[in-house]
Design a protein that fits this description.
Oligomer: single chain
Order of helices and strands: EHEEHEHHEHHEEHEEHEEHEHHHH
Strand order of the largest sheet: 3-2-1-4-5-6-10
Bound molecules: nicotinamide-adenine-dinucleotide, 2'deoxy-thymidine-5'-diphospho-alpha-D-glucose
Radius of gyration: 20 Å
Number of helices: 13
CATH topology: Rossmann fold
Distance between the termini: 49 Å
Length: 376
């Protein structure tokens, strides 16, 4: 198979590229990325010389270029991750999100359709797998934690394991109700993907995953930003009261789910991906502070004073919680890591890879950071 992975120089994409290149030497993996501020080839240093790997710098919105790439590499499968992915940026610049996430996805769908329509086998053995987010479902209430028991509880339960802040969960059938320009653009792209199946029969699959964490995440997202700020003794900007709830999954477990679904998932299906691992932001932040202080050899409590409550994010979704039972029941997926192992590994990785972080946080980053947080 020749597989096109878009956004492979980003956070999740780089883990997916690494997994596929190492696990499937018989496949040719083409990583297509525009290398925006979020794309970083340093994320893929360990696999860049592998014979089954090719990097192509291109913009998914460039339809003619997408056609060329599909033809040049005889693409059989697409795993589409390229996107603008940060909610706060979408609040400041929604146009870029509509362009990349909506028009870019449409351009890829059209290129896949046009290329595969010309082949004798047409869509036989082909698939277009679109990576989406739980944010398209909107926000859930915080209620008494009488949610369903995590099917992963035996494996993942522990002192640090949280899994329910309410009774309701996002199901594959939950009606879309996006609130931010980011989630509205992702919802729109999901609708286009499904429309291409329903209208033209394109073999599509969509998955909606919860918040990912782990190595190589750009330090605009909560976990790497806070690890880096603690290391430098900088304030930790907690939006609102820190009571919003997110459902965290280790990025390698997301990549494993993508591999499984790409190979075994049913065409036209949607699968939710999540680890039943809900955390209130402020509780998670306290775990991060504790872990960073311990690993840096600081006394417990050293960095607690860095917590700084700031103006809330506009339209801030209160709670996300994914029910991934379908994926477990139909394809047998479950997370491989307990949360405390995942967070320890993650903090350690950022502390051990200061050079990676320093490269990213030099140049334009400082300006971005000032603009994002000044006056908050
Ligand atoms: P990211 O911002 O780290 O990476 C995005 C990548 O896409 C970058 O390498 C960037 O250069 C590339 N890109 C952006 N615009 C492009 C364009 N026009 N053409 C080609 N490449 C372009 O994002 P991420 O966090 O790795 O997310 C990847 C995907 O997974 C996104 O579709 C996102 O919506 C989805 N997702 C993310 C999470 C999460 O927690 N991070 C959770 C669920 C779903
Ligand atoms: O749910 C999946 C989504 O998770 C993905 O689709 C997005 O691409 C990804 O960015 C992530 O979105 P969030 O908005 O949940 O992630 P973020 O890391 O930006 O914020 C996590 C929570 O922490 C959220 O409630 C906002 C809060 N926060 C974030 C930042 C950056 C703060 O309190 N302070 C901050 O400085």
């Amino acid at each position: 198979m020749n597989i096109l992975i878009t956004g492979g120089a980003g956070f999740i994409g780089s883990h997916v590229v690494r997994l596929f290149v190492n696990k499937y030497p018989e496949y040719h993996i083409v990583n297509l990325d525009k290398l925006t501020y979020a794309g970083n080839l340093a994320n893929l240093k360990d696999i860049e010389d592998k014979p089954n790997y090719t990097f192509v710098k291109a913009d998914i919105c460039d339809f003619e270029r997408m056609l060329e790439i599909f033809k040049q590499y005889s693409i059989d499968g697409v795993i589409h991750l390229a996107a603008e992915s940060h909610v706060d940026r979408s609040i400041k610049d929604p146009f870029t999100f509509a362009r990349t996430n909506v028009m870019g996805t449409l351009s890829l769908l059209q290129a896949a359709k046009a290329t595969w329509d010309e082949l004798p086998e047409r869509y036989e053995g082909k698939r277009f797998y679109h990576i989406s987010t739980d944010e398209v479902y909107g926000a859930l209430e915080l209620t008494d934690p009488q949610g369903i028991e995590s099917p992963f509880a035996t494996k993942a339960s522990s002192a640090l394991h949280h899994h329910a802040y309410g009774r309701e969960y996002f199901l594959e059938t939950t009606k879309y109700n996006p609130h931010s320009p980011y989630s509205a653009s992702k919802a729109s792209s999901d609708h286009f993907v499904r429309a291409f199946h329903d209208t033209y029969g394109l073999p599509t699959i969509v998955t909606n995953c919860s918040n990912n964490y782990g190595p190589y995440q750009f330090p605009e997202k909560l976990i790497p930003l806070f690890i880096n700020n603690i290391r430098h003794g900088k304030p930790l900007p907690v939006y609102g009261k820190g009571e919003n709830v997110r459902d965290w999954l280790y990025v390698v477990d997301h990549a494993r789910a993508i591999d499984l679904i790409f190979h075994k998932g049913k065409i036209a299906e949607t699968y939710n991906i999540g680890g039943f691992n809900e955390w209130k932001n402020i509780d998670l932040i306290r775990v991060i502070i504790k872990t960073v202080d311990r690993l840096l050899g600081n006394a417990e409590g050293t960095s607690d004073h860095l917590i700084t409550y700031v103006t809330d994010r506009a339209g801030h979704d209160l709670r996300y919680a994914i029910d991934s039972s379908k994926l477990k029941n139909e394809l047998g997926w479950e997370p491989s890591l307990q949360f405390e192992e995942g967070i320890e590994k993650t903090v350690r990785w950022y502390l051990d890879n200061q050079e990676w972080m320093d490269n990213i946080t030099s140049g334009d980053y400082e300006k971005y950071y000032e603009e994002m947080y000044s006056g908050r």
